Amino acid sequence: MQATQFSGKAHEDDSIHLQNFLEIGSTVTINGVDKDVILLRLFPFSLEGRARKWFYTHQENINNWTNLSHAFLAKFFPIGKTAALRGNIVIFQQKKTETIPEAWEHFQGYISDCPHHGMARWLLMQTFYHGLTQKARECLDASAKGSLLDLTIGEAETLLDKIAENQSWFQDKAQQCHQTKEIPEEVNALSTKMENLLHWID
C-alpha cells in the first residue's frame, strides 16, 4: 500500500504514517462499500513486523477507523511526546497578538497534534475559554448572549467555528463588546469631573 511500511521502531513517526496512509487510502473507492471498511481492510498492508502483529492481535476489538487510529496512536506514539503535546493543550494561553479566531485555530492545532489526548470535549472547551484573555472572554460571552460555558458543547463549538469563518460578523460583535465596556469608563470620568466641580464650588 505504501512505499515505506510502518514497523513500530523508535525512529518511526506513527502520526505521519497515518496521515500518509489516509492520503492514499482516501483515493480508493469501491461502489457500495463504506469508506471505513476500505480503510480497515487496507491498513494492515501498510504495516510490517511488530506493528502488523499488533494489528492482527487486536483486530477483533477494532470495528471502525476512529477506533483503529486512536488505538494505533496509543500503542506506538512515544509516551514522552504524548505528554508534551497533551501539555500544550492543558496550558494553552492566547497570545497577545492573536484574535479569537486565531486562538481557536491555534488550540485546534494542538488537538490535531495529539488526537489521543483523552480529554472530554467539555474539558477542552473550558481549557480554551480560561486560556483566553479577559477581553476575549468578555467578547465571546457577549456573542453567546451570556456565558460561553453556559452553552452546550455543540453550541459553543458552532459559535467558535462561525466566528472563525465569518470575521466581519465577529468584528461587529467585538465592536459592540468594546463599546459596552467603554460606557462605564465614560460614566466614571464624568462622575470624577462632577466631584471635582462640586469640591471647587464648596
From the N-terminal CA to the C-terminal CA, the straight-line distance is 90 Å
How does the major sheet shape up? none
Number of strands: 0
Total domain count: 2
On the 0 to 100 scale, the average pLDDT is: 82
The geometry reads as elongated
As residue ranges, the low-confidence spans are: none
Residues in helices, as a percent range: 55-70%
Radius of gyration: 25 Å
Structural class: mainly alpha
Number of helices: 10
Strand coverage percent: under 5%
Helix-strand topology string: HHHHHHHHHH
Provide structural commentary.
By secondary structure, the protein is an all-alpha fold. It has two domains: 14-77; 81-193, no CATH class. The protein is 67% helix and 0% strand. The chain contains ten helices and no strands. It has helices at residues 14-25, 35-42, 49-58, 65-76, 79-90, 100-113, 121-130, 134-143, 153-165, 167-201. Helix 5 (79-90) runs antiparallel to helix 6, helix 6 (100-113) packs across helix 9 and helix 8 packs across helix 10. The chain is elongated. The N and C termini lie far apart (90 Å). The model has no long low-confidence stretch (mean pLDDT 82).
Summarize this structure briefly.
The chain has 202 residues and is mainly α. It has 10 helices and no strands.
Key features?
mainly alpha, 0% strand, 2 domains
Task: Please describe the topology of this protein.
Elements (H helix, E strand, L loop, with lengths): L13 H12 L9 H8 L6 H10 L6 H12 L2 H12 L9 H14 L7 H10 L3 H10 L9 H13 L1 H35 L1
Helix pairs in contact: 5-6, 6-9, 8-10
